[in-house]
Amino acid sequence: MIKNIPNKVKHEELKDFIDATNFGDYQFLYLRIDFENHCNVGYAFVSFKDPLNIIPFYQRRHEKKWKKFNSEKVCQLAYAKVQGMSNLIYKFKDSKVMSNNPNYRPRIYHTDGAFIGQEMPFPN
């Protein structure tokens, strides 16, 4: 779980932030959005394909300011209650977030092959 995300950060900006250290290493990303204000609520869920891939991300991002976003907030990483892509998909696939704006939904990504880093369709 990524916490203390500046509220104006959009999904693609967060993806770029993660890709800078861990391109192709994560398979699930969900930046929680407030549907009324259209801003994120300050946290996101990310699931890495291999838990060891978290180490470089943690070393480069945990306890660091979000410099690119001109914010005084400090990035915090923590374990979420729900772990693993299949469990996250199960948690969100029938949630009301899936019937809202497609830009506000959780997303899954290829972690190998020719499509590495590209979004995959979310399972039904």
From TrEMBL:
Domain RRM residues, every copy: 1-82
A Pfam family that the UniProt record links to this protein: RRM_2
Lineage of producing organism: Eukaryota, Fungi, Dikarya, Ascomycota, Saccharomycotina
Taxonomic superkingdom: Eukaryota
Residues that span the membrane, as ranges: none
Keyword Acetylation in annotation: no
The UniProt record lists the keyword RNA-binding: yes
Single GO MF annotation: RNA binding
Keyword tags: RNA-binding
Name listed for the protein in its UniProt record: RRM domain-containing protein
